[in-house]
Write a structure and sequence with these properties.
- By secondary structure, the chain is an alpha/beta fold.
- The chain has two domains: 65-81 and 345-445, Aspartate Aminotransferase, domain 1, CATH 3.90.1150.10; 83-338, Type I PLP-dependent aspartate aminotransferase-like (Major domain) (Aspartate Aminotransferase, domain 2, 3-Layer(aba) Sandwich).
- It is 36% helix and 13% strand.
Length: 446
């Protein structure tokens, strides 16, 4: 992003307008221990061309997903995004459009959101979906708050297979709201007994499938146990492509399905922006957070689209609002919708099957590597390895050999005693040569 900095006169005018003496006054509420008292050890002045060159040198130190054989997943996946997706979302009517509060001039934007909601509802086998949220983790936290409102209880049970960063977001939101969270231990082997922990005090149980370690979960008995005790089941899906092949959570009794839609239409982008999915049952729609685009008719009886059931004011009433996330990831949702439309139902199924076949092929190669153990009895396109040593150190050594081998569990769960575990993802972008390079680099490193 290229810009020209403000002049001293510009800064003084801005400070005078808001009524403070200097920039330091803007930080008066920050704890003194968090403030930097001395200037950072950086050059005071550099020319524009010198800054550009320096930043390019720093960027060159990164190894991007396309620079190596790539097997990183754990909630963010490398999939092929057709050029037509980027071409369409960069059209000015999409790229520069603002939030569609005035339906009479926002019919195109509202219709794309309506179609996106329809696709998410179909994928998850739920009755209604919203117009997206920021990402999968915030969608999960919002789902937990929603169950508190629906049940009148304020205690959530989190599976040990839930992505640790999702769990941390839930804990952060819950701590501020003084809600209780019960964490199951990390479930690297996929054998936890959630049902034994469900009782009448819970508002919800949060379960991920495929979970962060790659295990597939049958949600049906968990949903039945939840419902016997008056609790709701929240199903989390971080790999949206899996919904093209696996039984959708709605068909297994989930009450709310949330997830990350990055896998479809959205590149990795060094961590964002991403797009949160949120779907639920029709009976809960009044408590669903975020926006909902609905279909109606205008004064002349023509098909029309509107934001329905809640207004912008509903979202900005703070403590009285259903949710304080009063916007949505509109452009990312559009990319998701375009890519899914291009694939169609049959195309998504083929893409999902290819992901699984590729992952099975890699697992079969790794099974023959001495001292390497695959922990999964079932998986989609991701599984967990137990290695004879520190997984994080091995990843660094394999990166030097041109292979990004996966995500060490110690990065997600530091101090949990799982330093020998490595989460490996294999999508349609990996070739047989990539898998051979992975195995060769692993053997050599071990």
């Amino acid at each position: 992003m290229r810009y020209h900095p403000l002049s001293d006169a510009d800064r003084q005018a801005m400070l005078a307008t808001i009524g403070v003496a200097d920039v330091a006054a803007l930080y008066s509420d920050a704890p003194a221990s968090t403030l930097i008292r001395e200037p950072l050890d950086l050059p005071r002045h550099k020319s524009e061309i010198e800054v550009e060159r320096h930043l390019k040198q720093l960027a060159a130190r990164n190894m991007a997903a396309g620079d190596a054989a790539f097997f990183v997943g754990a909630g963010a996946y490398r999939h092929h995004v057709p050029a037509s997706v980027d071409h369409l979302i960069q059209r000015s009517e999409f790229l520069t459009s603002y939030t569609p509060y005035q339906p009479e001039i926002s019919q195109g934007t509202l219709q794309t959101l309506f179609e996106f909601q329809t696709q998410v509802a179909l994928l998850t086998a739920m009755e209604v979906a919203n117009a997206s949220m920021y990402d999968g983790s915030t969608a999960t936290a919002e789902a937990v708050l929603m169950t508190h409102r629906l049940t009148g209880r304020r205690r959530a049970l989190l599976s040990g297979g839930l992505h640790p960063q999702y769990a941390e977001v839930v804990r952060t939101i819950s701590r501020l709201a003084e809600d209780a969270v019960v964490d199951m231990p990390p479930d690297a082997s996929g054998v936890e007994d959630l049902i034994a922990r469900i009782d009448d005090s819970l508002s919800c149980v949060v379960v991920q499938t495929p979970d962060v370690f790659g295990h597939l979960r049958d949600l049906t008995p968990i949903a039945e146990a939840c419902h016997r005790h008056g609790a709701l089941l929240i199903a989390v899906v971080t790999e949206a492509v899996s919904l093209g092949l696996l039984t959708p959570p709605g068909d297994m009794g989930a009450d709310i399905v949330v997830g990350e839609g990055q896998s479809i239409g959205n590149a990795l982008n060094f961590g964002g922006p991403y797009v949160g999915l949120f779907a639920t049952r029709q009976e809960f729609v009044r408590q669903m957070p975020g926006r909902l685009a609905g279909e109606s008719v205008d004064a002349d009886g023509r098909r029309a689209f509107v934001l329905t059931l809640s207004t912008r004011e509903q979202h900005i009433r703070r403590d009285k609002a259903t949710s304080n996330i009063c916007t949505n990831s509109g452009l990312c949702a559009l990319a998701f919708s375009i890519h899914l439309t291009l694939l169609g139902q049959a195309g998504l199924t083929r893409l999902a099957r290819l992901n699984h076949v590729n992952a099975v092929a890699l697992a079969e190669l790794l099974e023959r590597v001495p001292s390497v153990e695959i922990l999964n009895k079932s998986f989609f396109n991701e599984f967990t390895l137990r290695l004879p040593g520190d997984a994080a150190a091995l990843v660094e050594k394999m990166a030097a050999k041109g292979v990004l081998a996966g995500v060490p569990v110690s990065r997600l769960l530091p101090g949990a005693g799982l330093d020998d575990l490595l989460i490996v993802a294999n999508t349609e972008t990996n070739t047989p040569d990539d898998r051979a390079a992975f195995v060769a680099a692993l053997k050599d490193t071990l």
